[in-house]
Write a structure and sequence with these properties.
Elements: H1 2-16, E1 30-31, E2 38-47, E3 50-58, E4 70-71, E5 75-77, E6 83-85, E7 93-94, E8 105-108, E9 111-114, E10 119-120, E11 122-127, E12 141-146, H2 160-163, E13 170-171, H3 174-186, E14 191-196, H4 205-217, E15 221-226, H5 232-238, E16 244-248, H6 254-261, H7 266-276, E17 280-287, H8 295-308, E18 314-318, H9 332-343, E19 349-352, E20 362-363, E21 370-375, E22 378-381, E23 384-385, E24 388-389
Parallel strand pairs: 12-14, 14-15, 15-16, 16-17, 17-18, 18-19
Antiparallel strand pairs: 1-11, 2-3, 4-9, 5-6, 6-7, 8-9, 10-13, 11-12, 20-21, 21-22, 23-24
Helix pairs in contact: 3-4, 8-9
Amino acid sequence: MYCFVTLFLQLLLLILSNVWVPLVSHRSPVTLASPGAVTGASQVVRSGQRRIPVTTVLLDVCGKGGLCVQEALFYEKGDGGRTFCRLCPRLCSIRDGHTGFCRVRKNQQGILYTLNYGRVSSYALDPIEKKPLYHFYPGSDILSLGSVGCNLRCGFCQNWQIAHADPHTLYLSPAQAVAAAREQIARGYPNVGLAYTYNEPFMWYEYVYDTARLAHQEGLKNVLVTNGYVNEEPLRQILPYIDAMNIDVKGFTDEYYRGTCAGHLEPVLRAVEIAHGHCHVELTTLLVPGLNDSEEEIRRLVDWVAGLDPDIPLHFSRYFPNYKFDLPPTPLETLQKAWQIALEKLRYVYIGNAPELGGSDTLCPACGETLIRRTGYRVQVRGLEGNRCRYCGAEVKVVV
């Protein structure tokens, strides 16, 4: 009885707050670690050199089920109470009382439920370049939300504490998320919308779908930062509401995907092809020494991207030891070589996590002039007039 009374009071608090909850905090994602309902007004939290007013009404109901448990999309019922998940290429067959590989979709008496609807583990007002997206509203911010769960098992995962562990989470409704994004615009920040990131957003599908539709209706942009390991039907269903995606192509052999990430390459490539036909797409490859950084593999990746569209921005990111991996960081020479190889066939190639190399500016593919200069996350758009080079007039594939 106590639990029901508590939940009722929390829901009443949410109603009285008029579902307004600007959640913005730091330039780095913040993991919610304090138990209990969190309320406050006119707090001030540092965001790099910024000071962003924050008012929060977060409900600690996720650990009790309630709002965070909803019937899942994309599954079939089988004999003996089994459910067959159809969200991602794993196609999990799930017994009653068990979860799938992602840990956030559970069979309860023959019905598949999502366990993380509205569960927020991390949030931040990020530079859009951090996704990374270099050709989508450069210099803007985006309110970034993460939950829990992932359908791959990358041994180097930098967000394993939320993707593969069980962090404390608090509830945020789709309406609250959209209100939070709009609030930042009202406060004068260059926020363009919402990014679903930190963990795998397709394992947060039902919530992301509902929130993205609402944000789309409000004129906000929606961004997915994803491993691309998703089946075609759910991908196509959500794409009308998605404006941009950064998709990890973690390597270019199935052997690498199987051994390092417990997945397969082909579904990711198919997702890239589908997404590219519907929204702005950029790709990221983390180069891990000795595993996916050979010249042959890099050339195969570049050839494939060029065959799809040489205007797709490709980011080579430097690996650092994390989670289960203790290999040394990617040699700078490897990143430089990959960058040079890619520029033979692609127009926009970048180096991430290695500021000493540069490789983050956007150059005109026709005349070579610097169009967008980036120093860390400080961005100067200096050579664009709309989406054309101000020096030679060439069209530049950038959304502004």
